[in-house]
Design a protein that fits this description.
The complex is a heterodimer. Chain A is an all-alpha fold. Chain A has helices at about 5-25, 50-80, 90-105, 110-130, 135-165, 170-180, 185-200, 205-210, 215-225, 230-240, 240-245, 245-270, 275-295, 295-330, 345-360, 365-380, 380-405, 420-440, 440-455, 470-490, 490-505, 510-530, 535-555, 575-590, 595-615, 620-640, 645-655, 660-685, 695-700, 710-715, 720-740; strands spanning about 30-35, 40-45. The longest helix of chain A is centred in the middle third of the chain and has 33 residues, at about 295-330. The chains are: A mainly alpha, B mainly alpha.
């Protein structure tokens, strides 16, 4: 395959998707609502409302520059690691999956469907973060992202099921109509919000986001601006009508959002690695959004939506800037970089516009975002306005540190050329930030539309310059002044911030995560050791617990009349003798002998049982038993021939000499055998009556055009089971070829 | 290597064994047998050739190398039988003709999708066993040479 084909196809898909979604949105939206699994009340319900349009447009729109960037970035990236360019399609396929699942998530109106896409984004991000699979750091980061977001996704599922249990529907519009303010709704909404906060990397789940920077740059850019992290606030916006019903939850959102803004801002100030600075900035910025949702009301929700769009555009460009800079210089730390403004004028200008957007300077679209933030905060009270001010100052300071650190001052490194495809996206996104700073109407329109589904009512979102001394403007002026001060003191500030960051690392939630993971790993290892030390141990690990559990079940259930003793006639003598023979051979099989002897002994048990089936008038089962015993014994011998004779012998000796095994193995066999005996006895005592599944199947056989009940069951009545079983056979074939022939089928 | 008599008898037995296997498959719905048993019988017939004639001769004279691949094709076939009813709006694994309808028969063979499913089981089991036998035989040879 040509190397340009996959990225080009993906670019075309993203572009076409963007145009199609935009057209559909301008045409007033669209809806698909078809039953998917009607017996489970599941519907494939996708609707392009304002909120969906905003996130879907972000996912496809931001994808275009990211894919364009990746096109140039990836071959270089792979070459650096000595990997083949043939690994490219996988990357693009995963990015495509990420994009599609994000669009699906934005459109989903059914909670189960939402959950599905939710986990799909987690899976896609896991594979993308771990794309450099030889890098243990990347693998660890990917696992962390997956665990944090997927375990909390269970909270989303539980919340969904709580709501379903109460209201009998998964459909969100339906739920908004019927749900009232009750404890169930509060608990469910809290669980859903928990999942959303983890996905958006809010405190205390923020640690995964910083680690996720181990991913290739295009992935980071996409994940941070328009996909994974945005999914969290998308969910909050989507279920906002439920959240709104309990003020406690909104207050919790304010707290979580503020904590995230603060921690993110401080950490962003303290980091030296470019991508880390941006990662913590993202986390802080999504804190803004959560904070705004928590403030609530028309201005809060409207501002939240506006914030998300501006952030997506700006943050994407900043990540690409970091990628381009690293490509040009090979350095990725602020302390190693500087003075690149002359060397990379387009990147510098583009990222200046975007950094200014994040820092909310006038003439960029970010300015309106902060105006809306201050307006919403002021409506709630001066304390909230003070919080907003504090965060805005921090943001301005770390953004200034980032940009000036890169592009101003004396050059410290050599800068090589950077392909135009990596520069152009930064410039274009910067231009968008500036144009929208002058004409913010399109951004305001989409934010306004996006706030509507959250409040179930149209919300005015106004973005314009007021040249007067209203409180918002004063706060903005205060931000610039204080931000400049903090930046001026920027030698001292990062030191202080770094001290805080170190404290956080020492006591923070990442430690809890690491400790929890280590404990789980240890537990799993111990169980594993216990179970698979040798084959007998493994059999014991299955037989003993199941035997004990079954025994418990028997003790606890009423036994009166459950065990019938049938009659016995002389004609049954062959049957009894054969059963006795089978039992005797089975007992003999417990004595350790040579491996071949054991195989043949077990085969003898099987053949004896086949005779029993034949005597009972079940020729079909008897035939299968004979055939299976034959083929298994033969394959066993074949496999035994692969093991060197000395190994077999020493194994045998070891088993014989190990203390305790002499009585342990027969005892285990006895417990398991006795339990199965009682189980079968109980089952056979209940033939006839309503529990008689075998009888029902026999009656059904003629309807399957069969005289042979067994075949009818295998191929028709229980064909799904058969399908599963033959799949197992096929997988077993694959397993054998993998083990013996390194995967070659022939 | 086995004696001439064993080799000749094994050669001669292959065709009857395969005929029996096909019979077990074809008569599965009206008489004793099913696709699984038929697959194992056929596989035993081929295993007999491996044991008496040796791997190389069997694989030179019989088209067995296709069988492991056929196993996966058969799995796809079984899946197709399972999923085609979805296109007609029925639950998966609905067999045609439905209960109560007339079934065309050719001798003891009933022409219905359940038999096709059973045939897929036959091919899969045969292919899987032959694949495993081949893998074990090759691994044994490799062990001998090293």
């Amino acid at each position: 395959m040509r190397t340009w084909a996959p990225p080009a196809a993906l670019l075309a898909t993203a572009g076409a998707g963007f145009v199609a979604l935009l057209w559909l949105w301008l045409a007033g939206g669209g809806e698909i609502n078809v039953p998917w699994a009607p017996t489970l009340d599941l519907r494939l319900h996708l609707r392009l409302d304002g909120l969906a349009a905003m996130y879907a447009l972000m996912a496809t729109g931001v994808a275009v520059p990211v894919f364009l960037f990746a096109w140039r970035y990836l071959p270089h990236h792979l070459a650096e690691q000595g990997r083949s360019v043939r690994e490219q399609p996988r990357f693009y396929a995963l990015l495509g999956l990420f994009m599609v699942s994000m669009v699906g998530l934005a459109l989903a109106q059914d909670l189960i469907l939402l959950f599905l896409f939710w986990d799909l984004t987690a899976v896609a991000s896991y594979l993308l973060i771990a794309y450099d699979r030889d890098d243990p750091e990347a693998r660890r980061a990917a696992l962390m992202a997956l665990l944090v977001t997927a375990i909390t996704a269970v909270a989303l599922l539980i919340g969904t099921l709580l709501l379903y249990d109460r209201y009998g529907t998964f459909s969100l519009p339906e739920l908004f109509r019927v749900a009232e303010s009750s404890t169930t709704v509060t608990v469910a909404a809290a669980l859903i919000a928990l999942a959303a906060l983890a996905k958006s990397a809010q405190v205390p789940f923020h640690f995964w986001l910083g680690r996720a920077m181990a991913a290739p740059t295009p992935v980071s850019a996409y994940l941070h601006s328009a996909a994974m992290v945005a999914a969290g606030v998308l969910l909050i916006g989507r279920v906002y009508p439920l959240l709104e019903r309990s003020p406690v939850l909104l207050d919790a959102l304010v707290v979580a959002g503020f904590a995230s803004m603060l921690v993110g801002g401080v950490l962003a100030l303290s980091r030296d690695d470019l991508k880390q600075v941006l990662a913590y900035s993202t986390f802080s910025q999504y804190g803004y959004v959560v904070f705004l949702y928590g403030l609530g009301g028309e201005s809060g929700v409207g501002a939240a939506a506006f914030y998300v769009v501006t952030h997506a555009v700006a943050k994407c460009a900043l990540f690409l800037t970091a990628g381009a800079v690293t490509r040009a210089t090979g350095a990725q730390r602020l302390s190693e970089l500087g003075g690149l403004g002359r060397r990379m004028p387009v990147v510098a200008a583009g990222s200046l516009a975007c950094a200014a957007t994040v820092a909310s300077l006038p003439l960029t679209v970010g300015f309106f975002a902060d105006e809306l933030l201050f307006k919403a905060a002021l409506e709630r009270g001066w304390v909230f306005a003070a919080m907003a001010l504090l965060i805005a100052v921090l943001t301005l300071a770390y953004m200034a540190r980032f940009w000036t650190g890169l592009f101003l001052g004396a050059p410290r490194t050599e800068a090589g050329p950077v392909p135009a495809a990596m520069v152009a996206p930064v410039g274009a996104l910067g231009a968008i930030c500036l144009i929208a700073g002058l004409v913010p109407a399109p951004f305001a329109a989409i934010a306004q539309d996006a706030a509507t589904p959250s409040l179930l009512a149209a919300v005015p979102v106004e973005a314009r310059y007021y040249l007067d001394l209203r409180a918002e403007n004063l706060l903005a002026l205060a931000t610039f002044a204080l931000g400049a001060l903090v930046y001026a003191a920027h030698r001292a500030v990062p030191a202080a911030a770094a001290a805080v960051a170190r404290l956080g690392e020492r006591l923070g939630p990442e430690r809890a995560y690491t400790a929890g993971l280590a404990a789980l790993n240890g537990l799993s290892d111990r169980v594993h050791d216990l179970e698979v030390r040798d084959f007998r141990g493994r059999v014991t690990a299955i037989f003993l617990p199941s035997g004990v559990l079954f025994a418990l079940a028997f003790v606890l259930t009423p036994t009166l009349g459950a065990y019938a003793v049938g009659s016995f006639s002389l004609g049954d003598l062959p049957l009894v003798l054969m059963l006795g023979f089978a039992g005797a051979v089975a007992v003999a099989a417990t004595r350790p002998r040579g491996h071949l002897t054991m195989v043949l002994t077990l085969g003898t048990v099987g053949f004896a049982l086949a005779v029993v089936y034949a005597l009972l008038g079940a020729p079909n089962v008897a035939l299968v038993a004979v055939l299976v015993e034959t083929i298994v014994a033969l394959l066993f011998i074949g496999v035994l021939s692969l093991i060197p004779r000395e190994v077999l012998r020493s194994q045998m000796r070891a088993t014989r000499e190990r203390r305790g095994t002499r009585f342990r193995d027969p005892a285990v066999g006895l417990v398991a055998g006795a339990t199965v005996f009682v189980l079968v006895w109980g089952g056979l005592s209940r033939t006839g009556g309503e529990g008689d599944a075998a009888g029902r199947l026999t009656e059904l056989a003629p309807e399957a055009h069969a005289d042979n009940v067994v075949t009818a069951i295998l191929a028709d009545l229980r064909a799904l089971d058969t399908l599963g079983e033959i799949t197992v056979v096929a997988v077993a074939l694959l397993g054998v070829t993998k083990l013996l022939r390194r995967g070659r089928l022939w | 290597m086995s004696s001439v008599v064993t080799r000749v008898v094994a050669r001669m037995l292959l065709a009857p064994i395969l005929v029996v296997a096909i019979a077990i498959l074809v008569k599965g719905f009206t008489d004793v047998g099913d696709g699984f048993s038929a697959g194992v019988v056929a596989a035993l017939g081929i295993l007999l050739q491996y044991v008496t004639l040796g791997r190389e001769e069997v694989e030179r004279t019989l088209p067995v190398r296709l069988l492991p691949h056929a196993a996966f094709v058969a799995l796809l076939g079984a899946l197709a039988v399972a999923l085609v009813p979805l296109l007609r709006g029925d639950p998966i694994l609905t067999h045609y003709p439905p209960a109560g309808a007339e079934v065309t028969t050719v001798g003891k063979l009933e022409l219905m999708t359940a038999v096709a499913f059973d045939a897929a089981v036959f091919v899969l089991v045969l292919g899987a066993v032959v694949g495993i036998v081949h893998a074990v035989a090759r691994a044994y040879e490799e062990m001998e040479t090293t």
